[in-house]
Write a structure and sequence with these properties.
Number of helices: 17
Strand order of the largest sheet: 2-1-3-4-5
Helix content: 40-55%
Structural class: alpha+beta
Mean pLDDT: 80
Strand content: 15-25%
Largest sheet: 5 strands, mixed
Distance between the termini: 105 Å
Shape: elongated
């Protein structure tokens, strides 16, 4: 037989999947190497090199050794490829055919499958396509079996994810489940704590980067939690997306969530997100890193976009303060105050509906409801101190007072929200009609392109904002209607803060459901402004009735 030129390689390629390992030693890497080496030596092949992929399915075409071999083929450095049988090369008959019928002839590469008696140089591979189809049928059958086992495990509550989430590791004794990894778990707790303090995801990421902490992937590699090689340019790179994933992971509450993703078939195994109703959640499957109270605070804070203004910090009551008249959230702003010696910036809140009307030069449907953050801080802090002091020292009286007044107050709040919700939905319908009118005017030439673009854009923006407000109202209604007072939970939380020196985002979001700010009224020597504070679980508490 004609010997291969020395300048080109002859690859002896082996592959072993996890399923092949269970079938015995016939397909082992050692056995494949022995068969291929003997064949190459007996048939006069030179410049041979044995490469293999261990633990890769025949449907997976992202195998490291296979990828390197194909790169050499495309570079013209390969004269022949020898495999034990065609199934070792791959089990997708379309992909195998693409290589054997198109690529290899193009680069003059000879393919030999020893046990299938296939040799492209002899041209006697008429049965090769049929063998590829049989190999794919085998793969399809195996895939169905694996999927059935996977479904059974997932429905029983066994964790399906192979790699533990950051903060956990597998038990050292090889048993199933997760145990807390102390070092990374401490970073997780810190991320949640920073979030409750009002620090944004991007700022958290910058802090961790500045401290040169390994990011989750790098940490798992460094500590042997994840062993599969993965290129990583900067092991200390953290970003907001990573922080969001950590803050959104219910696994930190001790839950296992199976079937988060799905794939179409064994040929297209790209993960696709499953809707929540198709996911299965199992409680208490491993130790929790984050407690439920912290989780709820973070959820509540992240429902509202907390963008810092040009000057100063994010408002302490952002997402909590509402207008008493139109029900819209109050917008946080800063104003510049100059003196002869210095310039300072004062934070304040104003009705967002009023500000939108001013911005778009529309008829004002609401008034300003302006209140400085300093004044609101003072009012809320003083009210909290009174409520907490009475609740701790007179638990029974506090509980009785809340139960007597809470339900009526809660019902009034639900009714008010429903009225506002109806108004919002009506406005959405009005905007649809307005959009149709300007579109018709544009079609018949009454409106210029520029004017139509400006007006339609304004209507669309308002609709998007209102729909977002409707979603918030619907969520608030759902929670409010399902909970008419949870005094015990409130009292348990109060004992953590017997004396409050100052307010923080964590405290305000843990205890306050919303703050309703009324329009100020003129009075002698100044103004009077009413503020209603609605506490989580107990509603509004009239401190004037509490005997302190």
């Amino acid at each position: 037989m004609k010997k291969q030129p020395d300048e080109k390689k002859v690859y002896l390629y082996g592959r072993l999947s996890h399923e092949d390992e269970q079938a015995g030693d016939s397909n082992s890497i050692i056995n494949q190497r022995k068969i291929l080496t003997e064949y190459a030596e007996n048939n006069g092949f030179r410049n041979i090199e044995f490469i293999y992929d261990d633990g890769y399915s025949g449907a997976d075409w992202e195998r490291p050794a296979f990828t390197k071999m194909i790169e050499d083929v495309e570079a013209g450095r390969v004269s022949a490829i020898i495999v034990k049988d065609l199934s070792r090369f791959g089990r997708d008959y379309l992909r195998v055919g693409l290589y054997t019928e198109v690529m290899f002839p193009k680069y003059d590469v000879r393919l030999i499958a020893v046990h299938d008696n296939v040799d492209t140089e002899r041209g006697d591979n008429d049965f090769a396509p049929m063998m590829n189809i049989f190999n794919e049928w085998y793969l399809k059958s195996t895939s169905k079996k694996i999927r059935a086992v996977w479904q059974a495990k997932g429905k029983s509550g066994e964790r399906l994810a192979v790699i533990p989430i950051y903060g956990y590791r597998k038990p050292d004794d090889g048993t199933k489940g997760l145990v807390v990894d102390d070092e990374s778990a401490e970073v997780v707790r810190r991320i949640f704590k920073m979030c409750t303090e009002g620090v944004g995801a991007a700022e958290i990421a910058r802090t961790l980067m500045s401290e040169r902490l390994l990011n989750p992937s790098a940490y798992k590699h460094e500590n042997g939690i994840m062993t599969k090689p993965r290129p990583m340019k900067d092991p200390y790179l953290w970003n907001a997306t990573t922080i969001h994933k950590i803050l959104d992971a219910p696994e930190y509450l001790g839950k296992t969530i199976n079937f988060k993703t799905w794939s179409k078939s064994y040929k297209d195994n790209r993960p696709r997100l499953n809707p929540e109703d198709k996911q299965l959640v199992f409680e208490g499957t491993h130790p929790a890193i984050i407690d439920g109270a912290t989780w709820e605070i973070v959820r509540k804070m992240r429902q509202t976009k907390r963008r810092a203004p040009r000057y100063g910090n994010v408002g302490l009551f952002t997402g909590l303060a509402y207008c008493s008249d139109c029900g819209a959230k109050l917008y946080y702003l800063t104003r510049e105050l100059r003196t002869k010696t210095a310039t300072r910036y004062e934070g304040a809140y104003s009705c967002s509906e009023y500000r939108k009307a001013v911005q778009f030069q529309e008829n004002r449907k609401c008034t300003c409801h302006y209140i400085s953050e300093a004044a609101l801080n003072e009012i809320v802090l003083e009210d909290m101190r009174k409520v907490f002091s009475f609740a701790v020292n007179h638990e029974r009286e506090f509980a009785r007072s809340v139960m007597e007044t809470g339900e009526a107050e809660q019902r009034r709040g639900i009714a008010a929200k429903k009225r506002i919700l109806a108004q919002k939905r009506s406005r959405v319908e009005e905007l649809d009609i307005l959009f149709e009118r300007v579109y018709e005017d544009h079609v018949i030439g009454k409106l210029s392109d520029e004017r139509f673009t400006k007006m339609s854009g304004k209507y669309e923006q308002e609709q998007q904002e209102i729909r977002s407000e409707i979603a918030d109202l619907e969520a608030a209604l759902a929670g409010q209607e399902s909970q008419l007072g949870d005094v015990d939970k409130f009292l348990t939380a109060v004992h953590k803060y017997i004396e409050i020196q100052e307010l923080s985002p964590a405290i305000t979001n843990e205890f306050i459901d919303r703050i309703i700010v009324h329009e100020p009224e003129k009075a002698r020597g100044g103004r009077i402004q009413k503020v209603d504070i609605i506490y989580n679980g107990v509603g509004a508490v009239d401190t004037s009735l509490l005997k302190l």
